[in-house]
Specification:
Chain lengths: 729, 729
Amino acid sequence: MYQSIDFKEYELSNKSEEIVPIESLNYLSTNYESLDYEVIENELYRKEEQKKGYRYVVQKDFSRWMTFFWIGVIVAFIGIIIFISIEIGTNFKFNMIKKYFDNCTKKDCMVKPYLVALILNLIPSFIGSCLIVYVEPMAKGSGIPAVKCFLNGIKVPKLIRLKTLIVKVIGVITVALGGLWGGKEGPMIHAGAIVAAGISQGKSTTFNKDLGALNFFREDHEKRDFVSGGAAAGIAAAFGAPVGGLLFSLEEGASFWNQALTWRIFFGSMISMFTLHSVLSAYHGHPGDLTYKGLLNFGKFDDLSYHIFDIPIFVLMGIVGGLTGALFCHLNIQLFKFRKRYVNKDWKKVLEVLIVCSTTVTISFLLILFTSDCKKLGLDPINHPIQLLEGTVQSLFHDTPDVFNTTTIVYFGIFAYFITLWTYGVHFSGGVLIPGLCTGAAWGRLVGQTIFHFFPNTNIGIYSLIGAASQLGGITRMTISLTIILVEATGSITFGLPLMICLMTAKWVGDFFSESIYDTQIDLSGMPLLAWDPPPLSSSIYANNLMTHPVITFKTKESVENIVKTLKKYSHNGFPVVEYVQNNELDEGKTLCYLRGLILRSQLIVLLDNKVFDGPLTNYWDSVTMETFREDYPRYSSIEDIQLLQNDLKLIIDLSRFMNPSPYIVQHTMSLPRIFKLFRAMGLRHIVVVNDSNEVAGIVTRKDLARYKVIRHMGKISVTELKFSNKME
Amino acid sequence: MYQSIDFKEYELSNKSEEIVPIESLNYLSTNYESLDYEVIENELYRKEEQKKGYRYVVQKDFSRWMTFFWIGVIVAFIGIIIFISIEIGTNFKFNMIKKYFDNCTKKDCMVKPYLVALILNLIPSFIGSCLIVYVEPMAKGSGIPAVKCFLNGIKVPKLIRLKTLIVKVIGVITVALGGLWGGKEGPMIHAGAIVAAGISQGKSTTFNKDLGALNFFREDHEKRDFVSGGAAAGIAAAFGAPVGGLLFSLEEGASFWNQALTWRIFFGSMISMFTLHSVLSAYHGHPGDLTYKGLLNFGKFDDLSYHIFDIPIFVLMGIVGGLTGALFCHLNIQLFKFRKRYVNKDWKKVLEVLIVCSTTVTISFLLILFTSDCKKLGLDPINHPIQLLEGTVQSLFHDTPDVFNTTTIVYFGIFAYFITLWTYGVHFSGGVLIPGLCTGAAWGRLVGQTIFHFFPNTNIGIYSLIGAASQLGGITRMTISLTIILVEATGSITFGLPLMICLMTAKWVGDFFSESIYDTQIDLSGMPLLAWDPPPLSSSIYANNLMTHPVITFKTKESVENIVKTLKKYSHNGFPVVEYVQNNELDEGKTLCYLRGLILRSQLIVLLDNKVFDGPLTNYWDSVTMETFREDYPRYSSIEDIQLLQNDLKLIIDLSRFMNPSPYIVQHTMSLPRIFKLFRAMGLRHIVVVNDSNEVAGIVTRKDLARYKVIRHMGKISVTELKFSNKME
């Protein structure tokens, strides 16, 4: 009965892995693992369910609400820390510069304040970039693409560690103090995700601490739900937009819509916004006043009325936003390639940040020097000492028509576009949201001022707002969540339609030429992101063509030796458990290999680690529970680290007690769209393909589905098969 | 080869159908069919896909957007028709009454105006109730429960017919003119759903017209998507709340979240709101002004600030709302039972409406007579001639503290609660949303005035608003969508947290005692609604226990005679297609029955209707296309109506060309939660259960899953197995 396993050689079939440079497009990396949202309903699971009963259900539900409450509170406090640190730091900085300004009024002594400003900006930039480059590169940028991938079901290493959070928070503060063109809104999303993952799991890998609490949440699908909530809370804190946060989470993360989860996400977002508003109001001397708006504040639009004849103008502005956005994404790829080739050493990366910082400071000074009204453009340290970029956006939205002359805005717009482009992608911890809005607000205002020239009743602010939305929409292609974030930030529901029209136009025009900046980054990293829908016209691709085969399988009662050997030889994460029915009466004494379940590598590791072996002296059934498996989640030992005695190897593990006894299966004739929908809707990691007689024929995983990539270019749709590579940043 | 089918007798196994009175709870009706959201990827489908190519994909996508645009516009125009009709009618009515009032000033001659008012209210009430009772009973009430069931996947007969729409629209107008306590907001949701279904299908059963356009949308899943959009557009028009509309659709309808669909629903809602605002502004003499708010207008809250110490008060108010809401639902069931017993004839139903109407008018007059300030309670015809209930809500929200004395509000509150209760459920076309808000606003204002008595700085309006939300939340248990509808209607994001807190409390408290009013109605109707999540602790219920078996199957090549006989004998809607592999070498010459696909009753009917038979003289392969099947959607002939020649019966149909070749299958060991999730996420109608050797073992349908009902009562959770009955209203 306990015969040796049949080691069919695993062949990579048509999936040759190439070693390709990181900047190559159209390659999927094989280095990313998937998350697994399946609940394994094995005997242990049922035992626990029956033992704990309905009270356990209620208790778990209550813990979920409490966890979302604390996620909201802590995310808000991170926002508060960032805000207050920036406020104190910027005040100090500008006071220093002001002193030098005040001490010399002649034009030729601008040099001293310039140098002081330069140094005061370079120091935080240097600290921030060193942290990213040398301590935790995962904290780079906004983190939105990585969070998106995580919610999609990809295991992104180090994404949700406490260390990443600390570097990110300090990084965001240094970015603002360094005067770099990066927003703190994207990073707040990433920070929210980390907080949520940390709180819900009750343990920290960075500190190697396990509180032992909330361990019933130690499953991928529970963690994902909390991370969705954390990201939403981040947006709620950053923009004062809880509904926008909720919709962002759904837009990027959800697949199966769950009413209760949505309600909890919304609750967490509300708590986050409420906490931030209360504390910041109190900090600014108005305790109990809850009118303080989020980290970002667009100011109050007195009048957001528009006319029918404005609609074509908004559409045109959407087109401009889409075109410039697509150009932005295209140039970003070129810059990425350039950087991979020439900025390939750590010190060069830090140097680039310092160069960007110096350039920003220098041009800002030159703009102040040569144009009379640039102080108004937020470069004025007195009016907007706290939030440089946000202040600029506010000025562009609200100032009266006489404040800016056209030339200044043109110069400023060009500067904004290119400095945003250059800054996005250097090693710092900031996002593109606010710089994008700022750039768009500049050219939007230009449109407004031009119209004002002919129709003096024009409200310039709305054009500035539409420009901002169009530009950001063209770059990020965010649709519904961005509309609602902007609606919430401006507080006008009626203005939702124009915003939607320009964002939709910007998205369509942008998609005509390129992918969004986030998807571009995901493509470059080779992460196997699954789209919302299966590729069109793919119903003649069958499970047969998709699956990896032959499959490495285990028998229901398998020898420890075979398990260890297999795990050492193959890196697979899921193994079908089969039963061989040797029926000599069938043709040629054929052995049928019937599927009995699916066992995960992580489960096998835990079983080996805890020596859950069937032997004459063992009676493990009472000592092994669900807790045994939860303890090690999510980072399990490597098979190489497991020490076994020679005697152990001869024992048996009864896999039938631990495996998932009824994994979702598909027939070999099932088409790609149907498999895709099943995989996406159920958040699967493995689908077992069976043939007509229910024998295991193959396995389909995320990479097999993600390789069919839909390319929409110049109005044409096509489907490309991506190649596999080993690239990873 | 073409042997006769093996007619295994279909046994109802443990599912005895009882004949039970309609008011019995805990029975599932077997009279409702399910919708089927699966795409049948048979040979015809692939042929069409390959023929039409990517251009077809783009074209279909464009048509979707255009359809959503028109849904938005037409839903808005229905709102406009309702609004303007009510405005004209009410103006006429109140001018008449005013004339009689003005003509006699002494108190004792109130009789004449009273009688005039009574008659002017009774006439429209009579017309409205006759329409519902004699013309189209499906147009009764708000329609929200039925739309919810449709979106859940239940085929509700006559729900989305043009006739129902016309009766509904006229009904809503008569309700408002008859002074009945019913809102027009719920009906707008139903109207939106009908409009969406009608436009997207390009045909009308009522008029027997087929435009032949948009026939690629003639599938259940496409129709459902449009209906979601229509319901959302209805809310957007009714409340000026496009985001709330979107979230309502998702809360009630969605299972698999789809980004593109969400975006289109939002687009349709925006268009609907925008159209309604533009046209109504123009109608009121302000063309181009887009500040006009939806059908419902809460008025502008100047100040919605609140303090920390208000939160416990809001929670207490939420508790009151939950308690009174639960009582409301409980009494509603009693009333329902009473009506089924005593109001069982058509004329009695009309009579009840007339009695309700007379009572409403009489008490309103008495309130005016005996309390000095009741004119302010919206019963004043001069200030709020158009929207009686809405006007009352506005007064309760905004009027200064001195306007109402406490006694008046107490009387009014009691009146409001009971008249709402009585009116909801009579045969008229109005919803509970506004009456619920009005009742809550009354006792909320009472709370506010009490607090004002001690703290004269109190803003009474916010308590009134919280009371309104709590009451409605307690009755409907709507959570996230109601929060956002109220946030949008009041225009204050900051006040979202208090609203959420009181709605959440109201829901929790209400759920402690009863189900929501909508779910109560669904229970009473016996519709097999599937919840969001599978019942807890049910992982030891297996497919084996759930499925219906033995199954009626067809062979891949089946004789016409057998098909006709089977369809006449059994009412099933899906039949597994199998192949019998007679392997004499196996034990006892066992025949294995391998699954090859699934064929629907509707497909078989179309095949029989079009005589798609394999015979010596037929070559149908080119003439049968997807269009053949779409033409008859969604109402197919009955098997009894199909006329076949004796010769036809001897022919064969090759089912393998038309069947769904790879239906989703589950193993007989799969647990209820896993089957439930698959069923819900993929919108299935049938799941085929296979045994270990891939033989067809049974079929699981909606009713098999819906019968496990979770009862949450008094803080305890339990799972009840519902019985089957034949009840249907």
